[in-house]
Amino acid sequence: MAICSSGRQSLSASARGNTAPKTTATPSDTDVVALFNPDVHICDIGEFAQVGFNEQVQRLADDTGSQGHTVRNAYKNVGSFIETEEVMKAMRKAALECAEDEIGKRAAGE
What we know:
With 110 residues, this protein is mostly helical. The chain has helices at residues 29-35, 42-64, 68-76, 81-107; strands at residues 2-3, 9-10.
């Protein structure tokens, strides 16, 4: 492994996917990185993952008519992003039903 300019480790060319990852119960950093693009340095994975996560949060917020911080708060309280999507869709459905009821009451003069 080489050291990235930030001082963090990077995979050497020989460890970046030129061989198939080992199959073990506890994969090493090399094994995990090999599952991703072999041209990505270990020190960059976190940043790239964060960018992808931020994009998914914004997409879900846009799709459900909510804010990114609401999606992030839901994500903190469930076990996966798939569950977060389910929670956000349920919240959207509940909000629309509540709005429909409230509008109906106001139209009826209540």
